[in-house]
Structure formats: C-alpha cells, structure tokens
Amino acid sequence: STFPVLDAAGRLVGLLPGSAVRERYKARSVAQCMTPRAELLTVNQRQLRPDPIKAADAFFTEHIGIHKMLVVDDDDHLRGLVTFSDIDRIIT
C-alpha cells in the first residue's frame, strides 16, 4: 500500500509508503515521511499511447525495483497509478 500525495490543485507532491501509516509514526507529518516529487519517476500520459499496457511493461522492465508507475499530465496532475503486479497479471 502506497499513497500518492497531492496538493490542493491535484498536482503530485510525493509518495507515502504504507509502512509510514502506523501508530508509531503518528507524530510525524506526511511531508516528513513521503518521498518527495523530485525523487519520483513519473510517466506523462502521452507516453502511454498507443498501447498503455506495452508502455507500462517497458517502464517496469527498464526500472528494476520500481513497483509503482505514476502517470501525470503536462501540469503534473496525477492521472493514474499502475502497479507492477497489475501489469504482470495482464501480461502473463
């Protein structure tokens, strides 16, 4: 479980790991626990055309160890989140 973090305008600002959402970390802010936008790999929604499944498969093949593909538009609004396991189930 990983959660995209968006600002009030819907722009991607980070990614919060599910492990940070525990009682022991309740005193920490989301900003302290998340991976900031500058450190995230994203894909522009235009890059998924014409075959989003093939594009996602290529992304995960190229980026070993990355299990979430964040899809954004030209203004960095989050447009989707695709997981490695989603694509793996579809491809195999």
Quick tags:
92 residues, alpha+beta, three-stranded antiparallel β-sheet, three-stranded mixed β-sheet, 3 helices, 29% strand
Question: What's the topology here?
Answer:
Layout: E1 2-6, E2 12-17, H1 30-33, E3 35-36, E4 42-44, H2 52-62, E5 68-72, E6 78-83, H3 84-91
Parallel strand pairs: 4-5
Antiparallel strand pairs: 1-2, 2-3, 5-6
Helix pairs in contact: 2-3
Oligomeric organization of the protein chains: single chain
Kindly report how far apart the N and C termini lie. Answer: 22 Å
Most strands sheet: 3 strands, antiparallel
The radius of gyration computed from the alpha-carbon positions, rounded to a whole number of angstroms, is: 14 Å
Query: How large a portion of the residues is in β-strands, by DSSP E?
Result: 25-35%
Give, in spatial order, the strands making up the sheet with the most strands: 1-2-3
Provide structural commentary.
This protein is of the alpha+beta class. Helices cover 25% and strands 29% of the residues. The protein contains 3 helices and 6 strands; from the N terminus they run ββαββαββα. It has helices at 30-33, 52-62, 84-91, and strands at 2-6, 12-17, 35-36, 42-44, 68-72, 78-83. The strands form 2 sheets. It has a 3-stranded antiparallel β-sheet with strand order 1-2-3. Strands 4-5-6 form a 3-stranded mixed β-sheet. The chain is globular, with a radius of gyration of 14 Å.
